[in-house]
Design goal:
The chain is mostly beta strands. It contains 3 helices and 20 strands.
Amino acid sequence: MKNISLNDKMARYAKGEIEFIVKDRNGTVINTIRDDNIVKIFAKEILSHRMPFNKVWDPDAGTEGDWVVSGIDPDDDFAVKYILFGASFDSDGVPLDSNDPRYYTIDSVTGIPTPIRLEPGAFYDGGLINAIPIAEPTRPLKRIESISYEPSYQPAGTPLLQEDVRAMNNIVLLETTLKADEYNGFGASDSDFFTITEVALAAGKTLGLVGACEEDPKTIFLEGISGSAGSEEASEEPIPTVANGGDVVTLTDVSAAETIREGDQIKIVSLEPGSDGEYGDLDQISPFYLVLSKSTTGLELQLDRVPADSDQNPIVADVGVYRSTLRIFSHRILKSPVKKTSDFEITVRWRITFS
């Protein structure tokens, strides 16, 4: 009997595929690069239930049960909308290709660069390792421009009696295009280029044009409360919150009790903007935290760790909190960086197979 390996199981149930189709100025395909990728199971569940009712039956609600709001809106935060890109470059904007320890380690035997292992959670501040800064019109925040389906072939009937097969459209294809004038480095010369090193399939709040802000994409997805925010990183002000030096923080704005949900990532910042209009990160190693649970009032948030500064001193102060609506369905470091210059247009396709 054949043993089914973990990779075999993943190939059937959890894998996706990323495809980069490189075209020259004449539209001729000059290279096609494919890379396997694992898609998070919650993402497949969301994608495979795109027409659910927004309520669920609760047998304990009312007198004999009732429909209650599910708390998940697949048409908003959880709807996949974007393909995000990161690149390998240093502080001067010089491409590093695979000679970048943030992305690759060199195999001691073969000398071949190998992608690092990505960690779960908010390891990279809830976003990409090194996202290309947003600067209109060459922004890395690319919306999904096309959604279609492809067939695979599945056995029909009883395999022992019938050998015929049938086509089933159980592969979803998400596509976007990096145009000739996008992702071409920080300079103005045709010789400038980015080496695209990472790609992510993401959901988040609906965004229009974000303007020229040169921010990491993850900051654009922050959500707080309405006000005259001075920071470019979010359209709202942070929610006033008290940090007591423990892993529970307390929102002081009652109107924001339903803004943050269990399972959300939040960003803790200073409550007041500085002279530059930015809300500081309070010298934290990572200002992003995971909300494990909430109190019945919705004001006390249990976090995955104690908010602390870079010296590991617990934060005891009035702080501000943003909710991050960015949800990465899948995050991949490419086996080989993909060069992008003004000479090329690249079509990026993300295939997800539903078993």
